[in-house]
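Hi team, as promised in this morning's meeting, here are the two structures we talked about. I've kept the exact order from the run log so nobody has to guess. The first one is mostly here for context; it's the second one we should focus on when we meet again. Sequence first, then the predicted structure tokens.
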Amino acid sequence: MIKTHVDRVFESVQSSTAAARSAVAASWRRSFDRYGLDPSQRQRPRAVDDRTLVRQKEAAGHLLHLAEPRLDELYGMIAHCGAAVFLTDRDGVVLSGRTRSGDQAAFREWGLEPGRDWSEAAQGTNGIGTCLAERRALIIHRDEHYMAHNIGMSCIDAPVFGPDGALVAALDVSSARADQTESLNQLIAAMVTRLSIQIETDLFRAHFRGQRILMTGEETTGAHLLAVDSDDIVIGASRAARQSFGIAREGAFDRKPLRDLTGEAPGGLEGAERSAVLRAITRAGGNMSEAARELGIGRATLYRRMKRLGIGER
């Protein structure tokens, strides 16, 4: 007897080793154990009410403003494949989409439209929800979905992180074409990842407008960005840069001298001296006595140097 999709899911979630061997199986286990979902149950994704959707769009207004042109760009590259583009908030609710008019009815039937909840808790393993749950780019191809009624789709997703390193969105390309191949999925995945990184970069640059922005790594692995003020103190770092330099994954962090992270310092002797003084003050958290001790000088001498170098007390 040929096993159905539901049989395979139940066999996997009951296995003591499947989740350790496969990320998809681990997500199936979460869907079953943590969320109590029945893979045979057929229901369209829950829709938030219109008032809630308006509030969520308003909360994501800045993100949507910057992301919409990127959605148009991505859609222009993949529309001919019969695929659609969607942007969700961090909870998996679809905020915006791009679909060909001839395909809208089909995607609406799938529940891929603004206002629908595609979190893993609501729909089990799927591109949007699992991307958000695992905070990584991924492909959920057809029968890798948890719910049996979703196995006709291929979903390709990448997370979007905000200027503070926190997860803010998922960028999704979905297709219900029966002839969608894994090689085409991989090609689209590269586009989705590139556009998600560009959205992150746009958000970061807008947030730290007026500051010097440094790129510190390969863009293919994320937006590696640092925001540096006029005193060469790092005041912001993207998610990928935080991972590279061992900074807190998200939220506020203690300001750090740029040279402590990258070795970069202003040119010239005076620039080097200024950088050294700023580093000492920053490391000391603004405690001038401690900063003076690190520099091997007296507090009064430190204040004289600060005045000469144009450094204000922090």
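And here is the second protein, the one for discussion:
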Amino acid sequence: MNTNARELGFIGLGKMGGAMAHRLLETGHRLTVYDVDPTALARMVAAGGTAAASPADVAARAPVVFTCLPSPHIVQEVLLGEQGLCRGEALELVVECSTTSPEIALALSEDLGRHDVSMLDSPISGGVKRGREGNLAVIASGPRADFERVVPVYNSLGKPFHLGERPGMAQMAKLINNLLSNVATAATYEAFVLGAKAGLDADALLDVINAGTGFNNCTLNKMPRSVLPRTFDYGSNMEITYKDITQCMKEAEKLGVTMLIGNMTSQLWSHGYHQGGAKKDSSTLINHFEAWAGVKVVGRAAAGKKEP
């Protein structure tokens, strides 16, 4: 495999995948791209990518294909379906960047192996903005040799980590990371609603927390960028967040690990999801805390703005 040729495929051009694909194009990689959404596909062609007609068509042209997809069912279809990547004669390696589960990642790797195709289980973390900047954490598990072959590509996306030879280990690390992030997010929303109820200025409270010991990704990024301005556009829909937390709780159950805080966080996102929030930005979870307390957390940046 010659990754120095920088001929890559990329499937899944949504918020996260689109950011990654743009980054790869900007850093000199040549991409053959595909997405079921013609608008997303057209945007990437305008940015310099070459459109393909199907996943199989991508795999007929590129030996290394990245995928970043919203659900395990879609991952299965794109990799192994009738027009899946496994049908393309040029394909040697799939770099699977979706968040699924350890069990699914291992099964996909084994199924692709029957088609003489290798797979790196390679979820990413950092969000859309860091995806555009090339500042992601790129987690990988699978054959070390495959990992080393794509390190030059990974370096365009962020910092790569190899967690082991067995596919699924990277998925477990990603699920744990996402759970921890969302536990902190839920706690942050609850705390800021308490602050609003007590009459504290939200911007001043944020400055105190970020200069003290309570800061986290939510206070550093989500609150100033999406919540205090009341734009609620951080980048990930609640259905994706809920899926990741739910899958992490399933893995904990399999392993017999008690997750009191994790399960409470899962219930909070379940509430938001089932109260019409599935397609809404995950930052809108704070609206439920606000409704329960009868206040809103509003920053100076929201002055004169109409909420979405």
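Starting points for discussion:
The domain at 171-302 is CATH 1.10.1040.10 (N-(1-d-carboxylethyl)-l-norvaline Dehydrogenase; domain 2).
Residues 1-5 have pLDDT under 50 and may be disordered.
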